């Protein structure tokens, strides 16, 4: 019996219209990556397991897809491990490769392996799929694309300025106006923890603070208390819950609050430089806003932290994020290489563009011209015309069989074709072809010998 | 100690210049796929194992990369299987997903799953990586891209004609002139076997015949004899070794030889129709040649067989291939859907373009303008200018730190940048910027207030 076909959960087939829309986004992201001087690299879909394992925490290790060794994969398993049936010990013996979990670790591996070929500072972008054995849910998939741009080997804050401009350029080009680029700085978070005397509770503090939007001021205070912050510490942090006003007003408040913390003061200065420089240069359609509750990737970032929110009114998690990390390549033996980067959340950007109806109509037009097929002799003339149209870059096709004309028109309608050409016996005799505008219904005849007349009117 | 990083054997990192060259090829292939009316789809990197296993023969099954189940993967293994240590029985219990081995089986699965959404005839293209646990060797990788275009649900030979034109359009656009599209027909091969009375030895016959180029006429005869063909059968096949002349002359010879075979005569007629129609329409730069030794994918194709050879003088295996298969989707329960398709061999086309020096020079130019960095104040003016250049679509960058100017120039040279801009304190005072043409050494000043003057000269 034939198999009933399906695909693994958490994965997706993409239809022609979906692929075209995704490629539209990729194309715009890629274009701006390149005008900003980023260069593309690509890395293998699977890496040696030791490259990936241990880099994303225990949870990450569990979510990495492992590839079974080829051939007699049990032969490397010693008897004791086999008898113990301990998958934790067995896995590294039967699987030595694993699917990429993100683009950052492979990039770090790439930089170290190719350090002698690379001209630093190295601005690279990478647009490739990653895989995670996460529980699939709405908007979360086991295979999805990441679009990352990172600079390594440059400490200047001008990089952060450029990355804000890059977000702005891409979202403006996508006509996604009003996105908010939220910024924070890991040093500010450290400074706050220091000032409130809860240095060792920084992670607890920021995890709780990050929930301000979700659980409100009282909720955050309660959680901070449960996580071991003293009442005194929480009182000192109180002004943060009501930080408001312009970016510069917020910076003043932060500066005052953190005046006794060296690292905090440094963080405020960095943030101030970035914000002032961006404001001086001007953004096209995005907003830049300080958000001291922003604490993503805490264990990872050491300076700027970015996150992008969709325009107001669109319910959607962040559509981009990033930050600076001071030691990207240390795990692979290359010390003191600072990196800063951002990424674009393709799947969510897609959903936002869909919701706001921002995909250009042309994307759905996979075929501009369909020639009807009236039989063998007529179709030869039609194919000649189609060949000429294609040489002029027009997406054109000949219906492959002389099916009933109704059926052929139905196909043209389904494929959303704007022009349908007929070359029947009468047209052939007259040396003509008839073009029907499918929207207006209007029909125009052209000479088969001068298809240019039609092409120029397209 | 830090890990010494490496990548799995048979996989590759792609540097910026390699990615750009590959994207150049993909871009041209994609453009022509679309002008010929093909629509893109994408399928998941891994499929359920049952979708792939058993579709490529025993050898194929062995070469499919299997993904280990997540979590406690041993729990589905029964005690008897575990004790027997039989990987053949164990594998399906600990691994339920596998990496795509080609694009054809996933396409067939896609067509069946989505048959109610698809408007037939369905012309799809797909450009995605595939994975094979093959022994790596020169030009053979464990991860590589396939670029396939197929039509399903159309029996007309006009499809074959179009596919020849498609090859011609792509290779012409790549400036790869003189490629030879070799054609045969599975029905001709069947006819030959019938005429020589070796019907049951068709596979042996064609495998031997396919080696004519490599081992010569005597070698083929010897191998045919070893494979069980009688001397009489081999004598009858003799004229095939010296088939020559124009396509039409060869067709005449084949027609005569196969006049008593119904299927063979049908094959010659099909081939003749395709060749005559293509010749009537004309090719731009490729040649079309009958090759009765062409027998690729014998178990698979039922009509036309294509294979493309690089231009004469380039030593390289086939750079493309394809054919017609009458029952693509039957394995998944959808009967009587005929398909015909071709694919482009990206890696080999890349090597041929490299050998013939056919990649356009602009590809290597990842940055058009580099602004030197003379310090904080100057760099702010520079960033303003760079922002303006980027808004005009120019690939421009500001060197991220005020390093020694020699070092900055060296970076510009390494990245092959044609224009270097200086805004030092003097220029800043004069409200100017200096553009150095790195090839001619010529320097020109422009006003910072009118960057358009420079942009228009680019």
TrEMBL record, chains A, B:
The entry lists its GO molecular-function terms as: histidine-tRNA ligase activity
Give the catalysed reaction(s), semicolon-separated: tRNA(His) + L-histidine + ATP = L-histidyl-tRNA(His) + AMP + diphosphate + H(+)
- Looking at the record, the residues that make up the Aminoacyl-transfer RNA synthetases class-II family profile domain are 1-400
Question: Under which EC number(s) is this enzyme classified?
Answer: 6.1.1.21
Q: Keyword Mitochondrion, does the record have it?
A: no
Name of the top EC class for this enzyme: ligase
Q: Which family does it belong to?
A: Belongs to the class-II aminoacyl-tRNA synthetase family.
Question: What CDD domains does its record include?
Answer: HisRS-like_core (cd00773), HisRS_anticodon (cd00859)
* Keyword terms of this UniProt record: Aminoacyl-tRNA synthetase, ATP-binding, Cytoplasm, Ligase, Nucleotide-binding, Protein biosynthesis
Oligomeric and partner information: Homodimer.
Cellular location(s): Cytoplasm
Where does the UniProt entry say this protein principally localizes? cytoplasm
Please state what the protein is called.
Histidine--tRNA ligase
Which Pfam families does this UniProt record tie to the protein? HGTP_anticodon, tRNA-synt_His
